[in-house]
């Protein structure tokens, strides 16, 4: 009696042997029969799977009290509607004619039961290993998220501290300039000065007054002019730290971001425009991703997949929508 194909695929062995048999047959055909032994072994497994379903249905149909056997309770295929239908059909067939293998059922089923027990133990062990791995992965992700949040909070504190230090230096420099310049001091006392230029702007002012700029301001200008961006970062965390002046990139200016807030665009005229532009767009993408509960560690995987290339990564982020595409240059065509 033929077993329905759908029922065969529900059996433990059927979940993989038919797919494996078809794949190996195709591979053998493409390689001129190089896997003949594997084909025959998998074909044998498919036949064993068919006999397994047939014998189980015949045993239940003829001896209903055997349904309490652990094999029929533990293996999901025997609780399916497809097996119940097949068992009833087998029962009708056994009542009408004598099965040719009836005398051997008692010899076949015990062996199949033993094989099924071994197979069940193996599947159970594999399932426990997968569950343990899944639990370990979930725990790892939770720890990474906690660590990422802690690093983010620490970065915010360091950034705030850097801004406070810069503000103190600027205020100190302004007070020194006012004390040394009697004209400025007088205007400040009389309330006539209005808004004063920044220390950085005065350091680069094209006037003879530059000779009176305090040494602290000249030192700030010199450091800005000598600043160089890292050519290629191995991780986005390093890029983020350099941008905000954290960890190994810590300085009193607050990194590239701090320079921008203090001195605007003028200070970075010596930097590579393309590298700066791409880096700034990536930093904005990291901030945008974090707003949607994403993490920089997740984006770091994309960074390494892009071979740590700024151009490749910007293109990848444009595809994901984290970075908008720039409008094409050139005049628009006139329309009637």
Can you put this structure into words, describing what you see?
This protein is mostly helical. Among the domains are: 5-100, no CATH class; 229-255 and 268-324, no CATH class. The protein contains 14 helices and no strands. The longest helix has 76 residues, at 105-180. It is elongated, with a radius of gyration of 38 Å. The chain starts with a helix and ends in a 16-residue tail after the last helix.
Query: Level of helix content?
Result: 55-70%
What proportion strand? under 5%
Mean pLDDT level: 79
SSE ordering: HHHHHHHHHHHHHH
Shape: elongated
Question: What radius of gyration results from the CA coordinates?
Answer: 38 Å
Terminal CA distance reads 77 Å
The secondary structure category is mainly alpha
Report the uncertain regions.
181-213
Strands, total number: 0
Tally of contiguous helical segments: 14
How can the largest sheet be summarized?
A: none
């Amino acid at each position: 009696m033929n077993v329905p194909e759908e029922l065969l695929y529900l059996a433990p062995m059927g979940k993989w042997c038919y797919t494996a048999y078809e794949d190996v047959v195709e591979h053998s055909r493409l390689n001129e029969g190089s896997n003949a032994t594997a084909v025959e072994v998998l074909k044998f497994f498919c036949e064993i799977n068919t006999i397994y379903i047939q014998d189980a249905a015949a045993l239940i149909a003829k001896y209903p009290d055997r349904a309490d056997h652990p094999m029929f309770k533990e293996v999901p295929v025997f609780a399916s509607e497809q097996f119940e239908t097949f068992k009833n059909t087998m029962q009708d067939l056994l009542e009408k004619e004598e099965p040719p293998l009836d005398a051997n059922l008692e010899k076949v089923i015990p062996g199949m039961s033993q094989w099924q027990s071994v197979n069940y133990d193996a599947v159970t062990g594999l399932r426990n290993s997968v569950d343990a791995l899944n639990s370990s992965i979930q725990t790892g992700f939770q720890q990474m998220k906690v660590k990422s949040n802690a690093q983010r909070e620490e970065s915010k504190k360091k950034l705030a501290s850097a801004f406070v230090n810069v503000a103190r230096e600027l205020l100190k420099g302004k007070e020194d300039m006012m004390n040394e310049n009697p004209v400025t001091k007088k205007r400040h006392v009389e309330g006539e000065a209005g808004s004063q230029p920044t220390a950085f702007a005065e350091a680069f002012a094209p006037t003879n007054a530059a000779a009176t700029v305090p040494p602290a301001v000249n030192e700030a200008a010199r450091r800005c002019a000598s600043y160089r961006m890292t050519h290629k970062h191995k991780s986005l965390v390093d890029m983020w730290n350099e941008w905000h002046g954290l960890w190994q990139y810590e300085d009193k200016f607050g990194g590239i971001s701090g320079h921008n807030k203090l001195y605007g665009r003028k200070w970075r005229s010596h930097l590579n425009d393309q590298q700066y532009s791409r880096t700034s767009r990536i930093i904005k993408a990291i901030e945008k991703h974090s707003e949607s509960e994403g993490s920089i560690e997740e984006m770091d995987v994309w960074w390494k997949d892009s071979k740590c290339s700024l151009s490749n990564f910007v293109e990848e982020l444009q595809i994901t929508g984290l970075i908008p595409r720039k409008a094409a240059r050139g005049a628009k065509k006139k329309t009637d």
